[in-house]
Amino acid sequence: MALPRRVVAGLLTLALAGCATAGGRRPAELPRPVRTVLSNGVVLIAQEHRASDVVAAQLWVRIGGRDESADELGLSHYLEHMLFKGTPTRPPGSIDRLLEGLGGTSNAFTSYDYTHFDVVVPADHLRTGLELLADIAMNASFPPDELESEKKVVFEEMNLVQDDPERFLRRRLTELAYEPHPYGRPILGTPELIRALTRERLARYYADHYVPRNMVLVVVGAVTPSEVLELARATFGRLAGGSDERVSLASPPTLDRHRRVEIPRPEKQAYLAFAWRAAAVSNTDVYAVDLLTYILGDSPSSRLNQELRERLRLVSAIEAGYVASEKAGIVSVTARLDAGNLDRAETAVLEIIRRVREQGVTEAERQRALVTAESSYAFDIETAEGLARSYGQAETTWTLENELAYLDRLRRITAAQIQDAARKYFGDDNYARVRFVPR
Amino acid sequence: MRLVLALLVAGLAATPVSAAGEVVREQLPNGFTLLVRENPVAPVVALSLMVRAGTRWERRDNAGISNFLHAVMVKGTTRRSGGELAEAIAALGGKVSATGDVDYSEIRASALARFWRQLLSLTAELVLEPKLAADEVAPERTWLLSRIQKRRDNAPARAFDELYAALYGPNPYALPVLGTPESLARIDHAELVAAYRAAYQPQRMILALSGQVSASEVVAEARRLFGGMPRGPAAPPPAVAQPEPAARRVRVEMTAQQVQILVAGLAPSLDDPDHAAVKVLSTVLGGGMAGRLFAELRDRRGLAYSATSYYDPVRGPGALVLYLGTTPENAARAEAALAQEVERARREAVGADELQRAKGYLLGHYAMDRRTNERQAWYLAFYEIQGTGQDYPERYRRAVRAVSADDVLRVARRYLAAPTTLVLGPR
Which CATH fold topology does B2-226 show? Predict the structure, then answer.
């Protein structure tokens, strides 16, 4: 692309939900990742990946939106913003200058199940990267000025989400599909709570949860696992800290016909979104639900796209997605359309779901879904950070072993099992629905 | 790919350390250009087929025709309906899309590497035998109108469109790639067919492919598929009006939570001797989280959420754009602060550390962006279509390393002398 006709909204991105699909898949050719638990409880996953001479180092912390109490909403995300601000030995601004001067990049995001920090640096500078991540994992200093000025940034982020119909749609859908369950909370917090946030409150939350036992370090790139282990022991291995028991989550409420909202919006076009409750990552149904989601709405050849966009011409765009979190999952269908088509599009989506329930899917569809899954994995592993992300997510919400076995298990799912999943999860009424209508 | 990241710091010459092989380049007798890079990293393949057609060749009354044509092209071939095409691509684990852009139009395709032959053959089918059905025109127009509306509903996207219109004036870069509701209404089936015939001449086409493939096999297959196209008449480059820099401020009202503030100057093309220095200037100001806009205006003063700069390589003239997204309450202070940053860049030479940081960031990102096959294919085709030669990346890296603080000051004075300001937001 030549001129910047698209605008990227800043580097600190926020994942509104856990993961795009239930998990990743492993090719035969790559060396296997090596998993080690350090003596203080930090889990290390390392893998050699010589696609280029960089290394991705990622810290995953088992703390996120779901762990916040009612007066802590937004703290996990606020920490995500504050960690790169400095430590006693790293003044504000120095971390960004250090990484960017090396030609490296950094990124971070917060989900309901975890908070994630990553750097990509030239392989020669892995030690620098790990020293930095270990330092911010335990010693973030929350300079008072920075803490206050970051509030404005978080308010801006709230505005930004509201102005972006697609992000706001996903956020409202997730909230509606889960509330009052913790997975339905506002991950950015509320303006009132953020305004009232004190340094002491944030520091306490940090001290309670950023302990070695909650941390996963993933390192993938042009280094050997033994080199990584040595560096990890010298950095993350030295961190000390107590235990933190994660509060176990109740099951989210069942969805019914009362979860329907219509929101007037400034856009000229309408949006329509559905969410059905589906399998959590720990449930063996994830494989069938994943394939079902591909068949319903993952590509131009999918049922939803062929029927609603190409044949009936009711929508400008439509897709299905599956977010499998640790304790629950949702399959969503989202569409952009003219407001006049809302009712007909809704009926058509439900009709497609009903047909899958009653008649199942074809073997050709199952095969295409498998190839799509294989392909999506193959493209993820082009970069070290893509591979590292699939491992970190698996380790924090699932298991690494499940991740590595994913494609093989997916291949064993039959068309009949896909139909069973449709029957089990997709009823006529058991969904949440959000409509955005032009004001 | 060559490693530059680590060596920048040591200040040594770059050494090739690479999994990806050399590029094979071949021009067929009919003028069709072919570039292939073997890359064993992952079992995937990606290709970019670029053609010399895009906004640069368009006028106000047919704005968006290149993109419109490509939207219709992927809706079916003489052998397959749109639905059959979609299924065939999905069966390869593949994706195909086609769009217009400012200096070119592009068909992008990718798949699992073991299906490279089928992917190439499908791409050739799209290019050589598109159906361009008359009854696909109206639905695609409707779809494109919805895309235009989506951009108008999106505050940052709309702000950029308004800025380019103001900045480029009589130059075709002022036109949106998607076109306008008026121009799309005017473009009919016959015009799209004529645009296809004019653009898809072998001497206007470049195919670049990167992936886990054998270059010699790909070259042989591509020769077979594209070698038979008859050479067409030579197409003269479009006559393009030169915009004049004019310091002005444009205010656009839009209902939104955020205010978008953009300050832009006309800037050199990608093969101008000043290009690397303007790249460094753009990075000093708005590259990454240590860039001045992010560090000063967002981190230190909390005046914005989005704070960045853009200066993309185009045939020219380019645009150096400084961008803030902020709240209505902060908008006036943010705009003043942004103007001060422009003045500072024109007044003071950048310090040694800051210069070093900017170069590290710029070259690091350049290397990182060139790691996937999709991006590799794009870069290969892009440099070919821009006529810079395939040694451009190495020349560019050398030029960036050689940029001095004086160069940055000089280009700031030259290209930010009369910037255009655009503010979009609620009343």
Answer: Cytochrome Bc1 Complex; Chain A, domain 1 (3.30.830)
pTM of the model: 0.88
B285 Cβ contact partners less than 8 Å away, ≥ 6 residues apart: B291, B292, B293, B309, B322, B341, B345
Nearest chain A residue to B39 by CA distance is: A51
Cross-sheet strand order for the sheet of B33-38: B23-27, B33-38, B205-211, B44-51, B105-112, B95-100
Residue A11 has pLDDT above 60, yes or no: no
Model pLDDT for residues B231-264, shown as the tens digit of each residue: 988 777 888 889 988 889 999 999 988 999 999 9
Closest CA to A405 of A45, A58, A32: A32
> Is the model's pLDDT at B145 over the cut of 60?
yes
CATH class of B248-425: alpha beta
Give helix then strand counts, H and E, for chain B: 16, 11
Query: How many CB pairs below 8 Å do chains A and B form together?
Result: 251
Residue B18's pLDDT band (boundaries 50, 70, 90)?
Answer: very low
Give the single-character DSSP code of B172. G
Hey, what's the torsion of the CAs at B187, B191, B193, B196, to 10 degrees? -90
The pLDDT of residue A162: 87
Give how far A271 is from chain B: nearest CA, Å.
Answer: 11
Residue in chain A lying closest to B46 (CA): A379
Whether complex ipTM tops 0.90? no
Which amino acid does the sequence have at B93? G
CB within 8 Å of chain A, chain B residues 33-92: 41-44, 82-83, 86-87, 89-92
Taking residues B126-153, report their average pLDDT.
Answer: 95
User: Of how many residues is chain A composed?
Assistant: 439
CB distance B101–A2 less than 8 Å?
yes
In chain A, the percentage of residues whose pLDDT exceeds 70 is 93
Which string of DSSP letters, residue by residue, matches A138-162? Answer: HH----HHHHHHHHHHHHHHHHHHH
Closest by Cβ to A2, choosing from B307, B312, B323: B312
Q: What is the mean pLDDT of residues A233-237?
A: 97
Most A-contacting residue of B146, B280, B321 (CB-CB within 10 A), to test interface: B146
User: What is the spatial distance between Cα B93 and Cα B214, in angstroms, rounded to a whole number?
Assistant: 20
Contact between chains at A150 and B372 (C-beta distance less than 8 A): no
Whether a cis peptide bond, with omega within 30° of 0, leads into B317 is yes
- Work out whether the CA dihedral B36, B37, B38, B43 comes out positive or negative: negative
* B195 band by pLDDT with thresholds 50, 70 and 90: very high
CATH 3.30.830.10 placement within chain B: 2-226, 248-425
